[in-house]
């Protein structure tokens, strides 16, 4: 069966929408549960495809995982397997986050190279170098990262770039290393703080969460905990852009607006009226056509690369010309080819894109290449004349819980259409 969305253009989105736990947090928290024998409970989990996929990864190394609505319970046995090379590994990027916990706990790991969004080159050199600094050997063999250590010893580690995944893997290995580890140029994303918070609840000793220097004092063992995932700032921002693009009025709850300070400031510059509710959410009202603004993607607290498709989509219907600079994942500009199908006036030159706003987009069949590009195409379809077909929507399902339902509740007209490919071929032939 193949699925696409029919997105009817022209709706103004109005209403309230609740954001649940962050995809890029929950998957790492699930991996962190490997560090402690017993049952770890994670609440406010989003009901997205990547959560059961990550559950399969954990089961493949010996855990029992129960998914119960927005609660995930992971029971980690005393004897874990060090081999995480099941087919589930290749289906998502975050699967690589079992590497750090397995090395921390077992001093050895064989972890299949991860899958996930095709957004550009995604090497693991910083993950491996970090583990080497802690005293492990690390190589790539037969499609797997193989790491082994007689003992893990705290060390000073400088990252070339504040990589989210490398910070998390090194952190999760170092909490059970001997002595002190200092990770410099660490990533500062709110999801890293969330992982640090849960590890601390489990008994880890970490200082500097949310800063560029993380200091970890290794402990002998961790214990299970119950932890609530932080709200998904990327999903929250998606709704903020949806309000701005459809000249709508959307109140978003369940996400800390401070995690979106820069994003909301950009929308203010575009002409939106933004109100924030401390720690709880925000409201974006856009009454006039958005004005063009420039965007530059950078690690947090910069403008997130995951939001770049929304910046392009907003710019394509704004008044004026925007320059968008992508500094993290070069292949993300593939999204622009799909926007051009919808009538956007956009072109790229290296890691810059120039987008001249047009009065109207027009519907066309388009293809999602990753989670955020897919959601960006849906928002563009809402601003296009006619019915836009967005294909490969499984990408969107990996990151957005109840996306179609939430959009329709806000006043959009969007339908999920399931096609039997064999029937489609037969009809074409007849
Ligand atoms: C995470 C997010 C992803 C987001 C990205 C950047 C998850 C599951 N995914 O991905 O949605 O777009 O952060 O905010 O949390 N790099 C190296 N060597 C390494 C590691 C990374 O060169 O060893 C490079 C990457 O190619 C990329 C940059 O560093 O150019 C950032 O990558 P990183 O922060 O590691 O992204 P992920 O953790 O994979």
UniProtKB/TrEMBL annotation:
CDD domains: UdpNAET. InterPro entries: Enolpyruvate_Tfrase_dom, Enolpyruvate_Tfrase_sf, MurA_subfamily, RNA3'P_cycl/enolpyr_Trfase_a/b, UDP_GlcNAc_COvinyl_MurA. It catalyses: phosphoenolpyruvate + UDP-N-acetyl-alpha-D-glucosamine = UDP-N-acetyl-3-O-(1-carboxyvinyl)-alpha-D-glucosamine + phosphate. Keywords: Cell cycle, Cell division, Cell shape, Cell wall biogenesis/degradation, Cytoplasm, Peptidoglycan synthesis, Transferase. The keyword Zinc-finger does not apply. It comes from the Bacteria. GO terms for biological process: cell division; cell wall organization; peptidoglycan biosynthetic process; regulation of cell shape; UDP-N-acetylgalactosamine biosynthetic process. GO terms for molecular function: UDP-N-acetylglucosamine 1-carboxyvinyltransferase activity. Pathway: Cell wall biogenesis; peptidoglycan biosynthesis. Its EC number is 2.5.1.7. The active site is at residue 117. GO terms for cellular component: cytoplasm. UDP-N-acetyl-alpha-D-glucosamine binds at residues 93, 306, 328. Signal peptide: none annotated. Phosphoenolpyruvate binds at residues 23-24. It is found in: Cytoplasm. Pfam families: EPSP_synthase. Residues 8-407 form the Enolpyruvate transferase domain. Cell wall formation. Adds enolpyruvyl to UDP-N-acetylglucosamine. Belongs to the EPSP synthase family. MurA subfamily. This is UDP-N-acetylglucosamine 1-carboxyvinyltransferase. The gene is murA.
